[in-house]
């Protein structure tokens, strides 16, 4: 029998998640005993400094940047290499203890919460950039390497890794959650940019999804294991290395901003820009509420209307043409105040509103917390869903300025919520479920880039249908028959 | 216990493949009885015209365009809709009969051979283009729709589907084999361009890998089932619909050709073109032997040396810059005879050698058959592997001109083989195994785009390692526990 978690409410209000599962040590007393037995083995694997039972450390590893409540693990381990990860996993396997991988904790759907207790594998000590091959446009990194650290490392090579979810996340964590962000319209998401993964499975065995050390730019050799683990949110294995595609740093960049009379005109412009073959690098949408918040927060004076923030990458000459074509398209759709800039400082100033959107939203209601919804629909459905969502926000008496990766049809309401107000939390929960169902009714998905985590298991079931969920469960059972890997995420648990 | 198929030899010489499997009706007499029992059920599902037991039709469906020997199915069915596919699959499931999906039969690794007999599902009667959404850049097609048919259908929309493996293959078949081809360097392979699949599983159940009717441009909702079925070569289910990404037809195109003193200089140029951010649409390599063959076949006069064929897509203005940058790069690497053309007729003439490469290779030895190898390595390893491979060809006394999608590190030897010469066949077999192992030793793959099929099961095992193969086998067992779906492909069979 399946049941809904309705996590927003439960997690925000601190109610205990009721999870049932088949194989892990689920009784608290039994689990504590198993942890006690395992701890000395953990110590012998990664040393005295490689393990922590302290409350503060456990609390710190029990939550991400979302509003999902903290679920601390029983113990945190800090392996230094894949062999240690494997050895630790074998101990967990032997004692039937849950394993929860932890990168930087910048997730947005509660993916690191130890809802069944168990062992958090913090991978921060594995922070080496390995095997850079500039001429092959690829690099391999350990899970402690963040995207900013990688790009700093690559600084003098003429190469960069463009996937940018905003946070300075671990690249292996980005692979685990199938992250994307503002550059996806041109460079793709993690799905298109991961070439190979090293993964430790629940029983401690180490596999390489495309074969050890392999890094061809394309392959049709057997089942695509790489993309099975990308987006698996730690529920199938621990990603201990990822090989990534790199790109040449563009010769030049131009940023631009343009206001529109309505969402429809902003989206129409986006479709026409893509159809014209403009290789746009970023095309971000902010609604009037978001722009107003940004104006207040950063003392800007943008027109309070639907706005596109754009970025173009290319040669000096091609940029002129890209900007000119784009300006023509925006003007023919009623766009006004088209501003653009080439030098880094002015570009940064122009995009300030977009970069500060999260903080600008928070500043609307000091003392509140933020929760970002995340749906994605076909481009043509964006105007309708945004208009309906804005009406719903007003009717629900909620604050949720909208920012979106409009080139992908992906957008977020940055919900600003008073966590001490149960009535408001209830309204937020109902609103986010309606928003996701609105996306599903428009051929879209309940999550474009944040993942399912704790929050969207019931919605995933609605999105996929029972048979596809059965297939997913079959894959999970094949790879993790004891349900040790990050239990309670993505798939709902079956009650015995 | 696993054993090697060494298929090149066995299939070319007509020796029976010895396959053992666990659940399908494997004894010929038992299987014939099962087929006899199933036939009336098949007839009641798809009518008298929807089933064929004739030898000619069965032979036609027992082989693809490779040199793998014909393995005819016991019966061919021609369903007209997914419901019929599902009903037919249920009958097969009930009678434990193998199911082999058949698109256009243009595969190159023997993927349609009924090595365990069974029922071929020819999907040619399901040939509708469905649900075109021009403003969302997506379309859904049935498995009888080929890539040329789709692009003809799209003619007046300003959109096209760019993945081009050469053959006019079924788009669902291209999804099943993870096809790519000449445009992949810019537009990606099928992996990047399939948004959703409708699949009939071995038990007849119908699933949608991204949820029914869904078509967001990106998603992180649960396990990536879409990319599990892309490249699964009919071994996990029958693809009955695929939703594809479309692109705006470029405003203009330019083709170019350039000769180089050595493979190294041609590859160095490729790396520098990519690093410079030139959004090259095609960059194809032909070696001196291939160029010589093309010159003879098409009365051309290209310099008999390593040659790049290039194609640029974009606006008129951007093309000028792309061509100019590329010409500078090729010249700085010793490239000569840089020719380029903008109008369709001259472009076609310029690229004639590349387009006719297959026939030019065959014309080297009239009466012979062609067999295309298919390996892919990191770009920087291309010069070494091509040089070593050319030496090997000479030492092995074999004819195998080389053509490659050099932007991806993927290349083919177009082996021209006398099928009546067992010694030559033996040398071809040993050569192709050495070539694949050379690619594996250079961090590459034994197949970039043709798939594993019958020919590369042992090589796949070497490429992935035993643990990753176990994971693949676990996924296969989870989705097709009776091993009914296209048995004998991708994974080697376990002997009881």
UniProtKB/TrEMBL annotation, chains A, B:
Q: What does this protein do?
A: Involved in D-lactate, but not L-lactate catabolic process.
Keywords annotated in UniProt: Acetylation, FAD, Flavoprotein, Mitochondrion, Oxidoreductase, Transit peptide
Q: Which domain of life is it from?
A: Eukaryota
Compartments where found: Mitochondrion
The record's EC number reads: 1.1.2.4
SUPFAM superfamilies, per this entry? FAD-binding/transporter-associated domain-like, FAD-linked oxidases, C-terminal domain
Task: Identify the species of origin.
Answer: Parambassis ranga
The identity of this protein, by name, is: Probable D-lactate dehydrogenase, mitochondrial
Matching InterPro entries: FAD-bd_oxidored_4_C (IPR004113), FAD-bd_PCMH (IPR016166), FAD-bd_PCMH-like_sf (IPR036318), FAD-bd_PCMH_sub2 (IPR016169), FAD-linked_Oxase-like_C (IPR016164), Oxid_FAD_bind_N (IPR006094), Vanillyl_alc_oxidase_C-sub2 (IPR016171)
Spell out the molecular function terms from Gene Ontology: D-lactate dehydrogenase (cytochrome) activity; D-lactate dehydrogenase (NAD+) activity; FAD binding
Q: Which cofactor does it need?
A: FAD
Please give the catalytic activity noted in the UniProt record. Answer: (R)-lactate + 2 Fe(III)-[cytochrome c] = 2 Fe(II)-[cytochrome c] + pyruvate + 2 H(+)
Among the entry's GO cellular component annotations, what is one? mitochondrion
Subunit: Interacts with CSRP3.
Q: What class of enzyme is it?
A: oxidoreductase
Q: Name one GO biological process term.
A: lactate catabolic process
Q: Which PANTHER family match?
A: D-LACTATE DEHYDROGENASE, D-LACTATE DEHYDROGENASE, MITOCHONDRIAL-RELATED
In which family does this protein belong, per the annotation? Belongs to the FAD-binding oxidoreductase/transferase type 4 family.
Domain FAD-binding PCMH-type positions: 69-249
């Amino acid at each position: 029998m399946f049941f809904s978690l309705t996590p927003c409410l439960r997690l925000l209000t601190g109610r205990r998640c009721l999870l049932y599962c088949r194989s892990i040590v689920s009784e608290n007393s039994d689990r504590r005993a198993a942890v006690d037995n395992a701890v000395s083995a953990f110590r012998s694997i990664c040393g005295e400094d490689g393990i922590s039972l302290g409350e503060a450390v456990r609390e710190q590893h029990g939550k991400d940047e979302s509003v999902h409540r903290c679920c601390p693990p029983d113990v945190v381990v800090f392996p230094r290499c894949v062999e240690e990860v494997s050895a630790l996993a074998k101990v967990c396997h032997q004692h039937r203890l849950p394993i929860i991988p932890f990168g930087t904790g910048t997730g947005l759907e509660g993916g690191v919460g130890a809802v069944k207790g168990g062992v958090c594998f913090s991978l921060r000590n594995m922070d080496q950039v390995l095997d850079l091959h500039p001429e092959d446009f690829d690099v391999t990194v350990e899970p402690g390497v963040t995207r900013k650290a990688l790009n700093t490392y690559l600084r003098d090579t003429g190469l960069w890794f463009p996937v940018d979810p905003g946070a300075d996340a671990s690249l292996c964590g980005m692979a685990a959650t199938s992250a994307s962000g503002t550059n996806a319209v041109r460079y793709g998401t993690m799905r298109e940019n991961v070439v190979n993964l090293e993964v430790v499975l629940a029983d401690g065995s180490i596999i390489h999804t495309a074969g050890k050390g392999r890094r061809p730019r394309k392959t049709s050799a057997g089942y695509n294991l790489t993309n099975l683990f990308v987006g698996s949110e730690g529920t199938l294995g621990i990603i201990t290395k990822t090989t990534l595609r790199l790109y040449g740093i563009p010769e030049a960049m131009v940023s631009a901003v343009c206001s529109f009379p309505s969402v429809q005109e902003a989206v129409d412009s986006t479709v026409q820009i893509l159809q014209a073959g403009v290789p746009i690098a970023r095309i971000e949408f902010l609604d009037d509420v978001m722009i107003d918040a940004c104006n207040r927060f950063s003392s800007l004076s943008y027109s309070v209307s639907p706005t596109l923030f754009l970025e173009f990458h290319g040669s000096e000459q091609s940029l002129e043409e890209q900007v000119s074509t784009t300006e023509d398209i925006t003007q023919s759709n009623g766009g006004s105040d088209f501003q653009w800039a080439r030098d880094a400082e002015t570009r940064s100033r122009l995009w300030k509103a977009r970069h500060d959107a999260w903080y600008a939203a928070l500043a609307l209601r000091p003392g509140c917390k933020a929760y970002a919804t995340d749906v994605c629909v076909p481009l043509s459905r964006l105007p309708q869903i945004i208009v309906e969502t804005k009406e719903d926000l007003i009717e629900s008496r909620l604050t949720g300025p909208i920012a979106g990766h409009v080139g992908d049809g992906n957008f977020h309401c940055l919900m600003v919520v008073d966590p001490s107000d149960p009535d408001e939390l209830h309204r937020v929960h109902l609103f986010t479920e309606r928003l996701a169902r609105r996306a599903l009714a428009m051929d879209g998905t309940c999550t474009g880039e944040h993942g399912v985590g704790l929050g969207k298991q019931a919605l995933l079931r609605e999105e996929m249908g029972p048979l596809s969920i059965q297939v997913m469960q079959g894959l999970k059972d094949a790879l993790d028959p004891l349900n040790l890997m990050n239990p309670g995420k993505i798939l709902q648990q079956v009650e015995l």
